[in-house]
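Moderator note: this is an archived Q&A kept for reference. The question asked for a predicted structure of one protein chain; the sequence and the answer are reproduced below.
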Amino acid sequence: MEVSGRWCPRGRLQLLNSLLSHPSRSYYWKAFLIYLGFFLNTFTYFFYSFVFFRFFDNVIDYYLDVFQIKIHFEQKEILFGIVATYVIYLWIKLFAQGFDGDAFSHIMYWRYRLINKGEMIARLFGGLTSGVLFGIVSSNMLDPEIPKHAGYTKEEFVASAFNGCTKSRTIMEILLQPVFSLRIARRAHKLPFLGDASVPFIYMTDEYTLINRYIVIILENFVFEFSFSLAIYMALSHYMVARHGGHFTGIYILFKRFAAFTANSYLRNIHGVLSLDASIAIRRYFQDENFHLLIVRVLANLLAALIASFHFNPLKALPYNKFKEVFVNVKTSKLEAIAPKGMKDGLVYPFNIEDDDLDFTPFPNTFLGRLFRSCSSPEEHAKTD
């Protein structure tokens, strides 16, 4: 591998080329550049969306205050959904660098044989670490959007959040309440992962009710996170087939936004909020500091991605011409080996592709992509999307 390009200082080219001369070093260098691309792109998107949504939030609050207008919380959320359309459009048109994707969606890409394992790991950790950094930055810059230790106090367990109906129950309470017993609740009270949640309970008389309610609220968040994440990943599977069809990326992101609005309309009554992305879940942890919700969100998101990739694969058999269009990372030698014999456009099955048959995805034709391409191999300069 030979590094060249105007972005790399001439004095360091010889040293860098010698370091990357071994094939394995070239492999890890490319993986690092991909990691860096997803880290920078995701962090920038978090910062961009925060600035825009905070700006519109302040504008809306200002006009409501000036004209003394009262608006329901859900109506305000609808306004934010409309604003999100333009915010996402501007991001895609002006700022996106082509290193986009939910953290665990890259596991699906790998399972479908669209990318190799090294690229999957680089993409995954790029998204997760960007969530960590932005979480640290935002927790020191902003007031938390979610109450600290949500669900830890007695007041936050009462059902008054359901429009004053104090006898209301959550879905998981209805399903699981008969299963719980005082003995089970007390055992759960002693589990290490519920340790920090149990601290306030020793000062309260109705310990059994509070522990039960905390458990079912955590499970409620898991069910919603898993269900909506699964729907998102099923939509993403179709995007993988139709990704050459124009602005599907924007449609997909908007679908996520409105799916989150639908679920949050309910979850906010039990002090919950949907993430739909592990990097967002990690970012939110630095705001709400609720370790249990972090585990629930990440686990639900991961399970949804795995189930979608195992049981919902629209790419398991494709016509050969469509296969070459979608599986752009398959090496030429492998494409020739799996070409249908005597058939112009016979079916091809991606499960025959091994990890060694896949190259890294070419860098996108964006500022960041061109920068990385200039510090990559000469062959990379000739590649385009």
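Archived answer notes: The beta strands are 318-319, 347-348.
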